[in-house]
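User: Run a structure prediction on this.
Assistant: Running it now.
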Amino acid sequence: MTSTPAQRVARDRTRLLAFPRPDRVAVVVGGGPVAARRAAALTRAHTPVVVFAPELCDDAFDLLAERLVTWENRWPTGADLRGAWLVHAATGDSRLDALVCDLASRARSDVA
């Protein structure tokens, strides 16, 4: 299987730790290079990926342009995370990452 230029951003050092769920999305929070690499790795696993960020770096925008991810031009709410099988916070801001972690934990307990 050949990868697209945007997917090649996710180098071999990125590994998925869980099996994707085709009925649930993976959420990546952040629009920088780290978030782009994680989103690209998830697209290689053929799982739907939603990126939440007010801005996207070039690599993340390439994923969007190739229609490999969808983009929400905002930070997520708890309701946005409720149906996700995976949430990855890569905003570059430790406080915001911690908030996303808290929202994801609450969303998970709401589903369980």
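The radius of gyration is 13 Å.
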